[in-house]
């Protein structure tokens, strides 16, 4: 058996390529929409992808199942435990490639890829239709469990995301179903290797460990939700306490996947814009400039309608939560990074036709004069922030998590996690400057840039909360 984990660091998301060495056939479990990378990986291993499978309708990334059906002769296995959808019957009208077939599976069903058998388990709670796929391990007499977003290393899938579905569950129902799902895997041996759909940093769980894989035996020791599943009250506390609100973009992506995600064969080519073309676009409010340069470069040459989103781990969620659904996008990005940036944008729901083009950072400094002068946003020291707070000269927004805010915050600070600013910006007083802060100054920099783009005068407090509190200034 061939087993490859394909991990996206921007979304902490894992897909899996599983191949039969005897027949050369392979399956991809939980593919993202840029499916060409799986085709290339399989080819490099002398495999051909004949099947794809999806553990559930995803909220954090755009699925690649429809792309595979449209462009490759595959059999796609999706859950029959949830509602029907028109896209699942599209094969007869020529939308799918010749030879493609969609198979809806439920608990107790099985299928094979080459000589590799898969058994289907229904493991709801994170979503109504959630499945896990079980297969024999190639290296021992134990099993592999592709658990999707049901069971993670050290955590379980958060039960509130099912509410985004068209036919979602109440939180109580989701918690009860998740508890039953944990009980349903008690028959699996402790040596069963669990291959989850996400790693540490994903918003699909609350406190996922930084492990690429785990075992049932390990989870019975370290995973509080697994340990507490015999007690209804203990389990509810384990899965709900300390949870933050889901990122707003999840609802948009969930609906896109429910309706049948984009049928992409590969990411689009994005052309380089000359200075005149770029200037014409970044002066218009329907365009959002995604500035991937470091924060200080953004401050030196901030452009109208620009948001700061350096191309690092938080890039995808930052952009997805700050864009409006119909925004058109231009990029400030190094040419060598554009291809990967576009892939991440597609995965978080940006339409390929919405990406107008890019310009190199070296060209931007020549534009930052006159009407393009930096306005509306700047860094501020903790000392200056303290002076403004004490004199009532600014509003203060804490953009950290609930737990961080609860451990201590600036006096009178409004708590809005940075990924929720687009949805809640109207709660902030527009008549005064806004001071944003987080733990280190990174998340608050993104927040300040977004607020400046929305018309506020915004400051990012350098260094974050602890340099402020460490000076002995009053906190709550």
List key phrases describing it.
Oxidized Rhodanese, domain 1; 22% strand; single chain; six-stranded mixed β-sheet; Metallo-beta-lactamase, Chain A; 3 domains; 476 residues; 17 helices; alpha/beta; globular
Characterise the protein shown here.
There is one protein chain. This protein is an alpha/beta fold and 476 residues long. It has 3 domains: 258 residues, 4-Layer Sandwich (Metallo-beta-lactamase, Chain A), CATH 3.60.15; 98 residues, Rhodanese-like domain (Oxidized Rhodanese, domain 1), CATH 3.40.250; 94 residues, Rhodanese-like domain (Oxidized Rhodanese, domain 1, 3-Layer(aba) Sandwich), CATH 3.40.250. Helices cover 29% and strands 22% of the residues. The protein has 17 helices and 23 strands. The strands form 5 sheets. It has a 6-stranded mixed sheet, with helices on one face. A 6-stranded mixed sheet has the order 7-8-9-10-13-14. The protein is globular. The N and C termini lie far apart (56 Å). The model has no long low-confidence stretch (mean pLDDT 92).
Give the topology, please:
Layout: E1 2-8, E2 13-19, E3 25-29, H1 36-44, E4 48-53, H2 65-71, E5 75-79, E6 101-105, E7 110-113, E8 116-122, E9 131-136, E10 143-148, E11 151-152, E12 155-156, H3 171-184, E13 193-196, E14 214-215, H4 216-222, H5 224-227, H6 232-240, H7 249-259, H8 275-282, E15 287-291, H9 295-300, E16 306-308, H10 315-322, E17 328-332, H11 335-347, E18 355-359, H12 361-364, E19 377-380, H13 382-390, E20 395-398, H14 402-406, E21 414-415, H15 421-424, E22 434-437, H16 442-453, E23 458-461, H17 465-470
Parallel strand pairs: 3-4, 4-5, 5-6, 10-13, 15-16, 15-17, 17-18, 19-23, 20-21, 20-22, 22-23
Antiparallel strand pairs: 1-2, 2-3, 7-8, 8-9, 9-10, 11-12, 13-14
């Amino acid at each position: 058996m061939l087993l490859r984990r394909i991990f996206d660091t921007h979304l902490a998301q894992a897909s899996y390529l599983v191949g039969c060495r005897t027949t050369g056939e392979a399956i991809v479990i939980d593919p993202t929409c840029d499916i060409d990378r799986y085709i290339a990986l399989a080819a490099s291993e002398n495999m051909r992808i004949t099947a794809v499978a999806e553990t559930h309708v995803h909220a954090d990334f755009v699925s690649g199942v429809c792309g595979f059906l449209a462009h490759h002769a595959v059999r796609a296995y999706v859950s029959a435990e949830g509602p029907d959808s028109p896209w699942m019957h599209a094969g007869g009208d020529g939308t799918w490639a010749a030879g493609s077939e969609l198979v809806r599976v439920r608990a107790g069903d099985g299928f094979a890829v080459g000589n590799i058998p898969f058994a289907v388990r229904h493991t709801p709670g994170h979503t109504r239709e959630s499945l896990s796929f079980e297969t024999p391990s190639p290296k021992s007499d134990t099993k592999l469990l592709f658990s999707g977003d049901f069971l993670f290393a050290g955590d379980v899938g958060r039960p509130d995301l099912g509410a985004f579905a068209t036919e979602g569950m109440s939180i109580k129902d989701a918690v009860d179903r998740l508890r039953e799902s944990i009980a349903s895997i008690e028959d699996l041996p402790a040596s069963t290797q669990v291959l989850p759909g996400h790693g540490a940093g994903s918003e699909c769980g609350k406190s996922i460990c930084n492990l690429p894989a785990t075992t049932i035996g390990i989870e019975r020791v370290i995973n509080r939700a697994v340990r507490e599943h015999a007690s209804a009250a203990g389990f509810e506390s384990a899965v709900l306490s300390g949870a933050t609100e889901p990122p707003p973009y999840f609802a948009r992506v969930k609906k896109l996947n429910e309706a049948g995600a984009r049928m992409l064969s590969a990411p689009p080519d994005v052309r380089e814009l000359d200075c005149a073309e770029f200037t014409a676009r970044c002066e218009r409010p329907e365009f959002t400039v995604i500035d991937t340069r470091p924060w200080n470069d953004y401050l030196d040459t901030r452009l109208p309608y620009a948001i700061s989103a350096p191309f690092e781990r938080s890039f995808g969620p930052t952009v997805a939560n700050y864009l409006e659904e119909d925004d058109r996008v231009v990029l400030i990005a190094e040419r060598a990074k554009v291809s990967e940036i576009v892939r991440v944008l597609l995965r978080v729901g940006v339409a390929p036709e919405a990406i107008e083009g890019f310009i190199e950072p070296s060209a931007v400094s020549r534009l930052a004069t006159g009407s393009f002068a930096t306005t509306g946003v700047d860094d501020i020291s903790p000392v200056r922030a303290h002076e403004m707070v004490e004199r009532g000269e600014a509003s203060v927004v804490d953009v950290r998590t609930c737990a961080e805010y609860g451990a201590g915050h600036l006096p009178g600070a409004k708590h809005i996690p940075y990924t929720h600013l687009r949805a809640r910006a109207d709660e902030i007083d527009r008549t005064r400057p806004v001071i944003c802060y987080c733990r280190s100054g990174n998340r608050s920099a993104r927040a300040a840039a977004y607020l400046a783009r929305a018309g506020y005068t915004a400051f990012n407090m350098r260094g974050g909360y602890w340099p402020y509190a460490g000076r002995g200034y009053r906190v709550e």
